[in-house]
Every structure is written in C-alpha cells, then in structure tokens.
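REVIEWER CHECKLIST
Item 1: Sequence provided? yes
Item 2: Single chain? yes
Item 3: Sequence as submitted:
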Amino acid sequence: MNRTPLYKPALAWSAALGSLWVFVLVMLGAFTTSIGAGMVFPDWPLSNGSLNPTGWLTDLAMFAEHSHRLSAAVMSTITYIIGVWIWRTEERAWLRRLALFAALLVLAQAVVGGLRVLFDHLPVESLETSVGRLFAMLHACLAQAFVCTLFAVALACSRLWMEQHAGLKGTVGARTLALGRWCVGLLFLQLAVAAIMRHSFAGLAIPTFPLTPEGGLVPAHWDFRVAIHFAHRLLAAVITAALAAYGHVLWRDPAVSRAMRGLWLGVAGLLALQIFLGAKIIWTARSVYMTSGHVVMGALTLAATFVLVMLTHRDWFGAAQPAA
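Item 4: Structure as written out by the authors:
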C-alpha cells in the first residue's frame, strides 16, 4: 500500500469542505433548539417512523429537526469517507488516529442525539430536567469537540501544514503555547456552560445586560438558572482577557508569522461579534435568529482559535511522521 506524506489536493479540499459542512449541522441544531423543536419527532433514528415524514417540508418545527437529522447523516458519511481515505493514503500515524477518533466521535454524537429523544420522557426531578435534556447538554458539548477534530484533520491535510511548516519562523515560545491552550480550554468550557444554560431554559435568567435588574453586576437573588447564566457572563469576561493576553504574546513572539497574527485579529473580531450577539439575545428577549447566530459564532470562534493554536504547535507533530 502506498502511503506518501506529499500534499494531496483532493483529500485536502474534501477535508476542508467537511469542516465547513459541520457549521450547517451546528446552525440547524442551534435553530432547532432555539424554536423548541428538539422533540417534534418522538422517535429515532426515523422521524415519525419514516425517512420522509409527512409534512416536514411545510411545518417549520418538523423541517428544522428533520433537516438537522439529514445533515447529520451527510456529516457522518463525509467523516467516514475522509477517514477511510486517510487510512489508505497517509503514513502519519497521529493523523490516522485522529481520523479514527473523528469517526468514533460522529458515531457517539449520533447515538447521544438519539438518546436525547428516546429518554426525554424520564424526569430528573432533583435537577428539574429530564434524562433527555442531560443528553442534549452532552450532545452540544460533543458537537464542539467534533468541530475542533474536523478542523484539525483539515489543517493537517492542507498545503500550508504539509509544505510550508505552518509559516513558523522558528520555535514558538512556551508562554505563547501555554496561553493558546488555556484559551482553547476556556472557550470549550464556555460553550459547555452555554449548553447547560440553553437546555436549562436559563437564557433570560438575568433578563438585562450589562447590568442586572437591580442595577449591579452581581445578581441579588440566586438559583441554579441564575448561577449558570452568571457563570456564562463571567467566563465571557475571563475569555476576553485571556485572548487579549494571548494576542499580546503572539505579537511579541518572533517565531509567529504575520498571517498567524492576522488570524488572531480574526478571532478577536469573532469574539466581539459573539459578545454583541449575546447582548442582543437579552435585548430582544431571546430572538431565535440572534440565539442561533450566537451558537454558530461560538463554534466558529472556538474553531478559529483552535486552528491558530494548532499552527503554533506545528513542531509537536512533524510533517511526515512514519506510521507506527
């Protein structure tokens, strides 16, 4: 079997298109949750017992949920095709393992999504939720991990990664590397908190922004929904500070290229837009479009930051590590 470390344009473009398709999936999932259509079909994997349920093209709730399921099937197919392609043509052991992880992750994501539907009727009274909604929170978290995994695969297959050493001009400093990892971790934590908040109906638990209804920064009255909402706001401030610090060290690190600094500016712009959309959710009493856009923008901010951090860690991988 011929395994070559050379750039493969067809594989690279397929992986890139797959990493873009995932945002269609995220967008449809966000819209479905925002309009409360996650349980419009009580069965899974079929929808009302069919692959083509009656009325799904004319009913908005049915259209949102069934489109999400169909897009998930397309995403699974793309992931498996790319995975087999990589296993048959790549000699980099770490990339083959990453492709396998992506295939397992998309399978787990599908199963968790199904369990969200099948167990929604089981209450968890101590948490004022259902087993299904707990699976929905996990489903949202796995989605972010899947986005990062697809972007990692696409980046590893790209011409930039294969032939230009990611544009690095030397060895990136330890402080730059550590801050980048912290930013990715904080963003993932923020999106996990957001998933819990959304599926706990806490999006308007503090109904004013930037101050609370009492005119302060900290709520006067607390319960779980207020606490998880406030944690989301607090983490937004921490992430803003962390990304600002990351940008500062990137600019001072001589190994970081101008293109990478430009990518950080893009991340900063995405973060600013994300904060604006978060505020608009409050100001519009949770507009469906603002809420869906906020979810998609959060995933895009994480993906862009992850790509930047992976580029700075280019020396950890090697362009053509032999297969194990």
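Item 5: Key structural point noted by reviewer: Residues 319-324 have pLDDT under 50 and may be disordered.
Item 6: Recommendation: ____
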